Amino acid sequence: MRNRLIARRAPHTAHAFGRGYSPTLHKGLYTRLAGSFLLIGACACPRRLTRGLADDPSAKMPTLQRNAMAGITPARTNRPAMAKRGVMEVSLIFPEGEVIRRYYKGLIYLAARTCYSEKTPQQIWSEFLADKTPPERVLKLIEHVIESGHHSTIEHISFTFAISGVSRALSHQLVRHRIGVAFDQQSQRYVKYKEPQYVVPPSIEANPDALREFERFRDVSEEIYHRFLAQGIPAEDARFVFPNAVTTNLIMTVNLRQLMHMAGLRLCTLAQWEIRQLFKLIRKELMAADPYFGRLLVPKCVPLGYCDEKRNEDEHCKIRPHKNSVFRVWELYKRGQLVERTAAETDGG
User: Fold this and answer.
1) Of 266, 276, 283, 320, which one is the catalytic site residue?
2) Which end of the chain offers a freer environment for a tag, N or C, measured as fewer CB atoms within 10 Å?
């Protein structure tokens, strides 16, 4: 199971999972870099580069390093822009959907039932495996503990996702989550990138002038990175010239409680656009494995019943009313200034 997504211009519409927001391009940085390092689109003939070096100790050096010492930047292949475009991919790699559907609800039921039963966990589990526990009873107890906030019971199940083609800007946000989740990420210290890929924000992609500046800065930073490596600069130091747009890969293992919390924050229409796309794909993967668990990944306002984001006080996002509106209505109701209407009155009116 694998989902792929190339960053597109996000629609600026308020629907259940979509409002696009875009960061601002910091102009002028690439010009300062370009002022110190000139890009050479084509090198001189290799024969001319090596002429007269037969007796030079540096002649035994790799061509790339020798050229760097001479101040010559190696020619880069003129690849089309899309060749450098990172593709976001998410795969639920463990467990398989069959395992999730067969055992995961039972594990939550086991944890919850252990709290309220004289039976041993072994007895409860044996009954579940023998199909002696009615499925509706299992679902009813799971819904009860989740709605009651008894979420330790859902920490017993976890999911492992493979994530690739996301920006370092995204991964910096993702690893802020620490409890109930484990990450392992591609290292820029030990990996020497031959052809790094990049994520382009939709707002920049939609602006031709900004896109040209973005691509120029991207190319300059990449040229400097390779020049540093050729000069013997360690990869762990050469990487300092990379922008946040460079893609990275991760493995994430997370329990259901934390995954619901993360999705509640990152599926919000006010979340940063790229990490929001990531959690849409995570949700899609989980929906494919078992829709019961996929449906638990929703913006936090859905289970709350109201929005608590200060930036949504104007209620431009319509998924749920803002808490200020809810409390105003409640105060009016307590004062007797609101009269509750019956269903018949509502239908008739």
Assistant:
1) 266
2) C
